[in-house]
Design goal:
heterodimer, A: mainly alpha, 1 helix, B: mainly alpha, Sodium/glucose cotransporter, 22 helices
Chain lengths: 40, 555
């Protein structure tokens, strides 16, 4: 079975899910950076 | 451990073995045994990939690391999502379309038999030895903390894992990994919640975070450009990227998990599932360690976290220890008072002066360093007890039943890694050696039997190494070091295979050897941190492989 046989859940296309992973990774890193510097 | 804790642990062990055997029924061919019939869904494979990566020593070691040094270790995981995307675009489609059982099998199709054999042999040697260490390290900690014999813990963990992997192969591995990963997630949330709930009533979570932050425990990003400092932002992002690419792209224990997907889509989704969840999970584990650090501001800290070492020190040092103990206990009281005053000041004035608290903390650290120095002087051995911190917290401060559950979580973390490794070692020996050189077509029943014999062999070999590991001493370090020499180099061979169509088999084979030699030289003659070895290995293989291809073309 090839990758074209199945739809990508939620994101529908591969470029979208890859972009979502990268955006999510950058946001998580930024949030962790903010968390560690936050004036608790 | 109370009776209830023992019951929880026993129920876990019996239930997971029974479930593993049940889930693994119906294997008729090695395709079923090694690749779960190539019919697994992404979420099951994704949880299995995650469970294989998180070993017991990762679980107890990283919490201890956060307690001692802070959360800097997290940077190693930052590039994981990027590595997953790169692998989904490059190696995964090649592996999947080639219908291979092992990653190294693909190298014979692209290059030649000797490159495949060498890479597979390197995997068997290093993973075969390191699986013994994977079993030994948590067994040692648990046996000391629980007061068991090492052999009991090794046989409970290793023996029960062998039982279900031997019977059910990769189906058992993946389905038990799913259950074990859910147990591990539950354990992480439980420990995180308990660490917060057990803070004193007048110390709120922001106060605890402020205390952890003041001592640098919340510091994740170290922008230092130094190549020798551990876990800087750059070594994490660059070295960590190569490490993750090597581990998920060229290590059979991971490749085999996602080759079990029912389609290329399912295999890719399993990796992207990890890309979304892995960093937050590791963050939570490390933050739990930082909160345990604050928790011990308000509860007695043992002189040494390893109770066996402490008893030995008490016997060896006698009266010499008393002044150090008195100083340590005094420093603890002072740190607790300073921490409470700091929190009080924050409540009343919205901010506090951290310097008395920092001074009290520094005095406690200095007192502890003197105790460790005395231990090392009396025994002639170096001492570290980072891995004992979290298990001590679990057993001494978690309520009845929950302690047993968290010990079961540590067992789950160890067994989920071991099962994947036993299965992948058996696969590489069967596919890359037995079926390649001994008997190419033996029939389904024969091949299944040999696969089970090989699984039993690697399981027993791991137990044997673990049972002897205490006597091997520095050999364990050699094993770990040996693994880091070739990890990046093997990635370099796969990079040559998929990124450079012109690369020759000769270039790949000799490039691999030159890559390993380069890492050996860097490791021996420089103080560069080990995360950079993967970069050195990969780049050396790529450069030398391409140079050999150009300068000595194959006729």
């Amino acid at each position: 079975m090839d990758e074209h046989d199945e739809e990508v859940p939620i994101f529908r296309t591969w470029p979208r899910i890859y972009a979502a992973v990268i955006v999510c990774a950058v946001v998580v890193m930024a949030l962790i950076g903010v968390f560690s510097k936050w004036p608790w | 451990m109370t009776g209830l804790d023992w019951a929880v642990l026993l129920v876990y062990l019996v239930a997971i073995v029974a479930f593993g055997v049940w889930a693994g029924r119906g294997n008729k061919r090695i395709d079923d045994f090694f690749l779960a019939g190539r019919e697994m869904r992404w979420w099951a494979v994704g949880l299995s990939v995650m469970a294989t990566q998180i070993s017991a020593i990762t679980f107890i070691g990283t919490t201890g690391q956060a307690y001692v040094d802070g959360m800097r270790f997290l940077v190693v995981y930052f590039p994981l999502p990027f590595a997953m995307v790169i692998l989904c675009l490059t190696l995964v489609p090649f592996f999947y379309r080639a219908r291979v059982y092992t990653a190294y099998e693909y190298l014979e199709r692209r290059f030649d038999a000797r490159t495949r054999t060498l890479t597979s042999l390197l995997f068997l040697c290093s993973r075969g030895l390191s699986v013994g260490v994977t079993l030994y390290a948590p067994s040692l900690v648990l046996s000391v903390i629980l007061g068991w014999g090492e052999a009991t813990t090794i046989l409970a963990m290793g023996g029960s894992t062998i039982l279900y992997v031997l019977y059910g192969g990769n189906k058992s591995v993946i389905w038990t990994d799913v259950v074990q990963m859910l147990i591990i997630w539950f354990g992480i949330f439980l420990c995180f919640g308990m660490a917060i709930a057990q803070l004193p009533a007048d110390v709120r979570l922001p106060d605890a975070l402020a205390l952890a932050q003041t001592t640098g425990r919340l510091r994740v990003i170290d922008p230092s450009p130094s190549l020798t400092r551990p876990y800087t932002l750059w070594s994490g992002l660059i070295g960590g990227l190569f490490l993750m690419l090597s581990y998920f792209g060229a290590d059979q224990s991971q490749v085999q998990r996602y080759l079990s997907g029912s389609s290329l889509t399912q295999s890719r989704l399993s990796l992207l599932f990890n890309a979304f969840l892995k960093v937050p999970m590791q963050f939570l584990i490390l933050l739990t360690g930082a909160l345990v650090f604050v928790f011990y501001h308000f509860h007695a800290v043992p002189l040494l976290w390893n109770p066996v070492a402490l008893a030995r020190l008490e016997r060896a040092a006698g009266a010499e220890l008393q002044p150090l103990r008195a100083r340590f206990e005094r420093a603890q009281v002072e740190r607790q008072q300073a921490a409470e005053a700091f929190a009080r000041e924050r409540h009343q004035k919205g901010g506090g002066d951290p310097s008395p608290y920092l001074a009290a903390g520094a005095e406690l650290d200095a007192a502890r360093r003197d105790v460790v120095r005395l231990y090392e002087a009396k025994t002639g051995e170096s001492y570290t007890d980072t891995n004992y911190i979290f298990p001590t917290y679990i057993l001494t401060h978690l309520p009845r039943g929950l302690a047993g559950l968290v010990i079961a979580v540590i067992f789950a973390a160890a067994m989920s890694t071991l099962s994947g490794e036993f299965n992948s070692l058996a696969t590489a020996s069967m596919i890359d050696f037995y079926k390649r050189f001994v008997r190419t077509a033996g029939g389904d029943a024969h091949e299944l039997l040999v696969s089970r014999v090989l699984t039993a062999f690697w399981g027993l070999f791991a137990c044997l190494i673990a049972l002897q590991a205490g006597r091997l001493g520095s050999a364990i370090e050699v094993v770990n070091r040996f693994g880091s020499y070739f990890y990046g180099s093997i990635l370099g061979v796969f990079a040559l295979a998929v990124l450079t169509p012109q690369a020759s088999a000769r270039g790949a084979f000799w490039g691999l050897l030159i890559g390993m030699a380069s890492v050996y030289l860097v490791a021996t003659f420089t103080a560069v941190h080990f995360l950079w070895y993967n970069v050195v290995g990969t780049m050396a293989v790529l450069a030398s492989g391409l140079a050999i291809t150009t300068l000595a073309p194959e006729r």
